[in-house]
Amino acid sequence: MESISGRSNGGRPTSGSPEGRTFSRRWVLGAGAGALLGTGLTACGSDDGPGGGGGGTLTAFVYGDDAVKVQQAAVERFNSSAAAKSADGRVKLEKVPGSDYSAKLRTAMGSPSAPDIFFNWGGGSIKAYQEAKQLVDLTDTIEGDPVLKDGFLPAVLAAGGLGDRRYGIPMRGMQPVILFYNKSVFAEHKLRPPTTWAELQDVNATLKAAKITPFALGGADTWTELMWLEYLVDRVGGPQVFARIQGGDASGWGDPAVLKAAETVRELVDDGAFGSKFSSVSYVNGGAPAVFAKGKAAMHLMGSWEYSTQLGKFPSFAKNNLGWCAFPTVEGGTGDIRNVVGNPTNYWSVNARTKNKDAAIAFLKDCASETYAKALVANGDIPTTSNAAKLLDASPNPEFARFQYEMVEKAPAFTLSWDQALGADVATPMLTEINKLFVGKSSPAEFVAALKELK
Questions:
Q1: Which CATH number does the domain housing residue 273 bear?
Q2: What confidence tens digit (pLDDT) does each residue in 177-203 have?
Q3: Would residue 15 count as lying in a domain?
Q4: pLDDT at 152
Q5: Cα–Cα distance between 54 and 196 in angstroms, integer?
Q6: Nearest-CA neighbor of 128 among 106, 96, 157?
Q7: Residues 6+ apart with CB under 8 A from 3
């Protein structure tokens, strides 16, 4: 089964072609929990478990992209440390190609060769494993260990869990969704980044009068449309609206905030905010970034990897004219402008069958270290560690790095992207309904009714 959204490269765009930077930007857990259980997750009671004996070598599955060098260095550092000797364990990193990661993890977790530790996206991506009792609940471990409890931004730790329980330790950079704008276009038309919906509508009117499309949108890739609903629902009703849905209450789709967000989307589309051809423009092939960089569109709502994408394709634009700001508030809404949506980060989780939990936890603690955070910064990532702020001057773009870090640090809530927070059995039809809303094949009311039927 293909990824429902095509964005799962482990948390950051990679170099190379546009496809290389954005294809598999997100990950989906195969065909959902039912299929996972059908492929052998219930085999977790076997006596043959990971880790081999009381000590020895622990296997860690990791998404095998360009960023894996940070995790490789961490493994080498741990294996030569006193902590490894004390816990009588070493870690072996198994790099799994991105296109094969979800399938290989799914198969391995139902076999005697399951990994002790594995890379994931938190939320819905681990729900089936949690339901099959294959995960170590790290909540009490984190609360009782100052290194883990105080080592990461609270919003990021929370976003990787399920309910009020923690099953993951942050291990890569943050990826919030940001409203980017073309500073040259804004200066030419004497515009300021909007902080309220009324201001955004005024900006749109000025741009349309100048025959400039307000927003680039790669509507051929539905996940780009999803970002608009994620922020609008948050700004109208607050993060608790989607939290209810993520918790399994499908009636939450009937919250007035969801209908209001859908109505607002239709108003934007009908008003020409995305132009008339957005549904045939792709992000994956570089179409939407090009429209934005060339000034044909003035703004672009996109994940923080947009900076890397623009730097690779349009370096002059990225360095001189790319601006960024928070998504505006919506009049009458209850959502805080500091709330963030997107991909908080990637996580390490521990297999409940590991025979050396102490060594696994000792290895995870390295992710909170300054050495680990420095390696992420050098790789162009923004760490989610609480000590990262002082390290960001070494980033390729310190100003953008600080903006991202402070955005997440100050966020009262960081909502995981809906198609990652929900299982694929819900996320796949949800994306279909979102696309129908954007292209006018369903009304806002029909959109809400369809989502309420998703279980």
A1: 3.40.190.10
A2: 999 999 999 999 999 999 999 999 999
A3: no
A4: 96
A5: 58
A6: 106
A7: 24, 26, 27, 28, 102
Would you state the pLDDT for residue 7?
43
Structure token pair of residue 290: 């090009």
Pairing type for strands 117-120 and 347-350 reads antiparallel
Residue 449 CA to residue 230 CA, distance in Å, equals 18
CA dihedral 229, 422, 449, 414 (to 10 degrees): -30
Same domain, residue pair 300 and 194: yes
Cα–chain-centroid distance for residue 425? 19
Give how far the C-alpha of residue 349 lies from the chain's centroid of Cα atoms, to the nearest Å: 16
Q: Tokens 């949506």: give the residue.
A: 341
Tell me if residue 168 falls in helix, strand or coil: coil
Residues 118 and 224 in one domain: no
Does 214 lie in the same domain as 168? no
What is the rounded CA–CA span in Å between residue 448 and residue 453?
Answer: 9
pLDDT, position 52:
45
Q: At residue 111, what is the residue type?
A: S
* Domain boundaries, position 40: 31-174+345-387
Query: How crowded is the C-beta side of 109, counted as CA atoms within 13 Å?
Result: 34
